[in-house]
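Narrative of accomplishments. A recurring question from our advisory board has been how the design workflow behaves on a single, concrete structure rather than in aggregate. To address it, we present the structure tokens for one chain from the evaluation set, followed by the sequence designed for it. No filtering or post-editing was applied between the two.
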């Protein structure tokens, strides 16, 4: 009888503790997911997409030039120069 009485005394706090652990785990997972998700949600376009938008009238010449320059700069900064690569191989 002693064992049966102690289990009934421990079971409610144990259930509450288990609930806290589960809720805490979910909260921690959501926080980690939000911290690791990319915050830059900008849409990238290719040069051909920009040309189509210019032809359709969605962009004016100034907007097209700025977007084209941004794409070219981003691409040239993220990839090594092919001329340097070629000269080092020969």
């Amino acid at each position: 009888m002693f064992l049966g009485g102690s289990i009934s005394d421990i079971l409610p706090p144990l259930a509450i503790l288990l609930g806290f652990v589960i809720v805490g785990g979910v909260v921690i997972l959501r926080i980690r997911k939000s911290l690791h998700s990319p915050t830059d949600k900008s849409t990238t376009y290719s040069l051909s997409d920009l040309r189509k938008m210019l032809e359709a009238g969605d962009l004016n010449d100034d907007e097209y030039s700025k977007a084209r320059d941004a794409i070219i700069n981003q691409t040239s900064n993220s990839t090594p120069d092919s001329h340097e690569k070629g000269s080092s191989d020969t």
